[in-house]
Design brief:
The complex is a heterodimer of chains A (129) and B (242).
Chain A (H helix, E strand, L loop, with lengths): L1 H19 L5 E10 L6 H12 L8 E7 L2 E4 L4 E3 L18 E4 L3 E9 L7 E5 L2
Parallel strand pairs in A: 1-2
Antiparallel strand pairs in A: 1-6, 3-4, 3-5, 6-7
Helix pairs in contact in A: 1-2
Chain B lengths: L10 E2 L2 H17 L2 E6 L6 H12 L5 E5 L6 H7 L5 E3 L10 H14 L7 E5 L16 E7 L6 H4 L1 H6 L2 E5 L11 H11 L4 E4 L8 H11 L15 H5 L2
Parallel strand pairs in B: 2-5, 2-6, 3-4, 3-5, 6-7, 7-8
Helix pairs in contact in B: 1-4
The chains are: A alpha+beta (129), B alpha/beta (242).
The complex binds guanosine-5'-triphosphate, magnesium ion and zinc ion (ZN) (3 copies).
The site of one zinc ion has 7 residues of chain A, from loops.
């Protein structure tokens, strides 16, 4: 159910950006980066986004979610490793607990693709990450 | 034409909630309040722990509770009986509290009591092991509860909350003898995910283990351990790492 809250928060952020653009471009794609070590289910986000966008400034927008794997760093081994989600998080080599998380906690809007309303053929890229 | 906008606009999906949480925390700081966010699956014992905590600490700390009950005032009423100011936030169908709801709770609280006189605000989150950990509300520390009846594997299956927790209470330890439950394995599973968390096995029913938890709360509020309450055998060493 929190995917609905997350979507609301996403939409507010997107609207702020959209309203700050003088020519109110048409947004065609919104790219997210969602870590595996979060409580967010990408499919749930896409579902909630699709339910929301109809008839809004996002009516033509597709939500693209890139999953980011959980990667931890073991200080003892000086090496990255991939914990097995749901089963095992300690370092598989030396058994040290999971201290530093390198990736997997992301909940990011990475970039937006949009068509300028007046120059339909061009696709600009707004990079935020 | 490719145009790259200011990278400083990099946005967290929960940006708005984060900002709200920071705002709440500023208010707490201004008033000298420590805020704890209590999280667990439904029925792990949050309200019972609060009842026990309030009756033990009320004489030395001014405590208020923000209660995130889904639809009823049942938990709030239980805590009001302890004689502390309690605000119930009706969360409707939301599966977690967010910063905006708690902000509303703070404003309600201000109608009951002068916040300057409060030392500790405890927020009882909605019973849910998944998402409350992702939504900060302005707390200074996150307290997770896991009851002995839930199984040793829960920290592995719901790792985010256990990773985010500053303190973990393994609750209902009085029931352990009736179950096939391995407390050491629960602790080892939690430590795999979060080596720094302070872990206290407790029973709100018998009072077993509560002294360590109460001392942790005292330390969280910036108050030193009350020497009189330290019993021989209390794991004071654990507290040093808080
Ligand atoms: N035996 C035993 N039972 C307990 C203990 N703590 C809580 N319980 C029981 O567990 C049940 C749930 O306790 P609550 O304190 O209401 O749990 P909660 O986490 O606040 O529940 P929700 O707010 O509904 O998520 C009640 O029947 C309590 O009496 C304990 O230490 N020992
Ligand atoms: Mg409760
Ligand atoms: Zn290692
Ligand atoms: Zn304010
Ligand atoms: Zn939720």
């Amino acid at each position: 159910m929190h995917e609905v809250d997350m979507t609301r928060s996403l939409v507010l952020t997107l609207r702020d950006w959209w309203e700050s653009q003088p020519d109110r471009p048409q947004i065609s794609r919104v790219h997210l980066r969602v870590g595996d070590f979060t409580c967010v289910e990408p499919a749930g986000l896409v579902f909630a986004f699709d339910a929301y966008r109809e008839g809004t400034f996002l009516s033509a927008a597709e939500l693209v979610v890139e999953s980011v794997p959980l990667v931890a760093f073991c200080h003892a081994c000086q090496a990255d490793y991939r914990p097995e989600m749901g089963l095992h998080y300690a370092c598989p080599t030396c058994g040290a607990p999971m201290e530093d998380i390198r990736s997997g906690r992301e909940l990011k809007i990475s970039h937006i693709e949009y068509q300028n309303a007046h120059r339909e053929t061009q696709t600009d890229r707004w990079a935020v990450a | 034409m490719h145009q790259t906008f200011d990278a400083a606009l990099e946005m967290n999906l929960l940006h708005a909630n984060q900002a709200g949480a920071d705002h709440n925390r500023e208010h707490f700081n201004e008033w000298g309040i420590t805020c704890l966010n209590l999280m667990s699956s439904p029925g792990a014992g949050k309200t019972s722990l609060l009842e026990a905590t309030l009756s033990a600490l009320q004489s030395e700390l001014a405590i208020a509770v923000i209660e995130g009950d889904m639809t009823t005032e049942l938990d709030a009423d239980r805590l009001r009986r302890c004689g502390v100011p309690v605000v119930a936030i009706n969360t409707g169908r939301s599966c977690h509290l967010d910063a905006r709801m708690v902000s509303g709770g703070i404003h309600q609280l201000k109608t009951l009591v002068d916040p300057q006189t409060i030392d500790l605000v405890v927020v009882e989150n909605v019973g849910n092991l998944v998402c409350p950990a992702e939504f900060e509300v302005g707390e200074h520390a996150k307290v997770a509860l896991l009851s002995v009846t839930e199984g040793e594997d829960k920290p592995l299956k719901y790792p985010v909350m256990f990773r985010e927790a500053d303190c973990l209470l393994i609750t209902k330890t009085d029931l352990a003898p009736y179950l096939e439950v391995d407390l050491d394995r629960i602790m080892a599973n939690v430590r795999q995910i979060n080596p720094e968390v302070a872990i206290f096995p407790v029973s709100a029913k018998t009072g077993e283990g509560l002294a360590d938890w109460l001392n942790w709360v005292r330390q969280a509020t910036g108050r030193s351990i009350q020497p009189a309450t330290i019993q021989p055998g209390d794991r004071v060493a654990t507290l040093a790492s808080v």
